[in-house]
Design brief:
The chain has 8 helices and no strands. By secondary structure, the protein is mostly helical.
Length: 190
Amino acid sequence: MEAFLSSTLAVAIAEIGDKTQLLALFLAARFNQKSAIIAGIFVSTLLNHLLSAVIGVWLAQFVSPEMMKWIVGISFIAVGLWLLVPDKDGATNNRWLQYGAFGATVVLFFLAEIGDKTQIATVLLAAKYQSMLWVVAGSTLGLMLANVPVVYLGHALMKKIPAKAVRLAACALFCILGAATLLGSGIALS
C-alpha cells in the first residue's frame, strides 16, 4: 500500500504545471469530447507507466540492493531538483489531431511522457518498491488526478494554481523520498 500511496502522491504533485497538463488544456480546447480525452490520457498513461515500471523492476534485478538504494535515493533527489525547472511550452504536432480526440490524446500523451519527470519517477518508484501493480496503479491515478481537472476546468484552474509553489512542494517531496530511501538503508547523510 505504501507503493501505491507514494506513487499517487509523487506523480500527482510532479504533474502539476507539467507539459502534459498544458497538452490536456490544448486538447480540451481543440476537441469538445472530454470523455474521449480523459480515456486517451488514461490509456496512454497506463501503457507508458507500465513500461516504466517494468524497466524499474528489471533494473533492480541486476543491481545489488545496497547500490539500488543509492541509485534510487540520489535519483529521487535529482528528480526533485529537476522539478524546480519549469517545462517549456512546445508546439504540438498537428498531424496527430486528425485521429480525433481519443487517438490524438493517446499518441500525444504517450510521446510527451517519454523521458518526462513522471515517467522517470515511475521507473524509480518501481525500482524502489518492486511492485509493478501498485506503482503503476498509483502513478496512473496521480497523473489522472492532476490532468482530469484541467480537461474540465481548463484555463480557470491553471490561473489559480501557483506553479512555482507546486514545483517547490514537489521538489521537497522527491527530496524527502530520496533522503528516506538513503536513511532507510542505514546510510547516514552528513
